[in-house]
Design goal:
Oligomer: single chain
Helix content: 40-55%
CATH architecture of the largest domain: 2-Layer Sandwich
GO molecular function: DNA binding; excinuclease ABC activity
Number of helices: 20
Distance between the termini: 79 Å
Organism: Maribacter algicola
Pfam family, one: GIY-YIG
CATH topology of the largest domain: Nucleotidyltransferase, domain 5
Domain UvrC family homology region profile: 262-476
Main location: cytoplasm
Length: 595
Amino acid sequence: MSQIPIDVQLTALPNGPGVYQFYDKDDKILYVGKAKNLKKRVSSYFNKNHEYGKTRVLVKKIRGIKHIVVPTESDALLLENNLIKEYKPRYNVLLKDDKSYPWLCLKNERFPRLFPTRRVIKDGSDYYGPYTSMKTVRTLLDLIKSVYPLRTCTYDLSNEKIKAGKYKVCLEYHLGNCKGPCEGLQSSEEYDRQIADIKEIIKGNFKSSLQYFKGQMKSLAEEMRYEEAQRIKDKIDVLENYQVKSTIVNPKISDVDVFTIISDSALAYVNFLQLSHGSIIRSHTMEIKKKLDESDEDLLQLAIVEIRQRFNSQSKELYLPFDVALDATLKITIPKLGDKKRLLELSERNAKFFRQERFNQIKIIDPDRHTNRIMAQMKKDLRLSEEPRHIECFDNSNIQGTNPVAACVVFKDGKPSKKDYRHFNIKTVTGPDDFASMEEVVFRRYKRLLEEEEPLPQLIIIDGGKGQLSSALKSLDALGLRGKIAIVGIAKRLEEIYFPEDSIPLYLDKKSESLKIIQHLRNEAHRFGITFHRNKRSKSAINSELENIEGVGEKTARDLLKKFKSVKRIKEASLEHLTEVVGASKAKKIYGSFH
């Protein structure tokens, strides 16, 4: 089993619905459970004292945790059922028996019957579900039967037997629940038409049925039959809230292996979902170290062979995201839509979660490896000649041209180095001119670094588009640094990355770690600059309030603030206290202006 400590495994768990599996030191499955939130549920086993001895013993034995993410809580319930039946874990008591979830069966016969069942028999009948409660099945069945009269008898309604008059209508006919096809009182064509409508309702296409119900409800209301109208309204609510599809169990799909792959520059992750009789019984993700120029097709081909051998898979059909050269006896399907496509998406989702989980674990266990990977990825994404171990980002802050300032933030190995952050007061620019301000601060920053023989960054990020980037480049040209330091601009609107002398911006994947670090730099520069700007504005406002008093200049205002700390305390100070600081003459003027 995994050598990663349990607390690290818990940290990396996702927050969505899914099924978790606990394993012991011998890699034997101990327990299967479902969760609305995997991280919270699994963590709860290790964060509290358990009342039951069985649970305490279970927790002591846990050495590894696996999980499968699914779209909904209902899917988690169904998958839990599948896995418990498949593996029969020692610590699972419930769901170990042969109890199955209910289905709706539309029998393969003339004048088909519709009934609930817990057994799926391959006799050509249509099965819909599974449902997580029999109540849902009965509600839907009652709903259908209240609108479409269907037979419930088990007679063989062949044309010959009906013509021979072998059957008589039963009580259901007299109650209005059946139209009497056994006596030939309803044609097979009319019956089949309503069966087609019923199939659409069960599949989730309620449009025509809802229109029918709403019309019926309106008619009943107009006739002041309000109780009956309310009953129809309840049925409409059930239909509108009803969901039938499950990715976890599908009777139309038999024994199938599903494979997907996601990869980056160094690693690939192949997920395997195994279906037996239409039910998911296994999920496994393999991490593969990539060699030079290995394609996803080559990696997936190798992984499929290895995984199928490891788990002794006998499935003859595979669902894959693209075609791969495999044994000619295997049937390869590349799903484009429907249930098969949903299975492929579920597999890919599990691969992505596994990849993120591994990154989170490495971040805790081996932070250097995590940093090296991110730096290598940034070098590749931004087409740099070396890894950007030292990055600097610039941002301007001014409001209507007042108190213009700029900020420079520094990241080393992808993390903020706050001791190296720098503020700049704009000195040579008057008015709100972002371009000229950017040119000034970039020139000042790197002129000083050169003079002090400090190390230069590998990457400069300018908060702004092509205009700000061009201004920064002028300063690098003036200092002879063009080409020696990589420089890019990031525009806020669509997060475009601009390169010098390239009019077409680069768009990084929104989930890219490179983009996240660039955004972090930009946001830090903005925060740092805004804080400095606010403090400067505040100080300027305080000074101007004191300097408006006759006889008080900048030095006097500074002396007063140094002593009293705030304008409020200066206002509250006595004449004697003020005299001690600025002398009798100025003290009288200050005291008089505030009183």
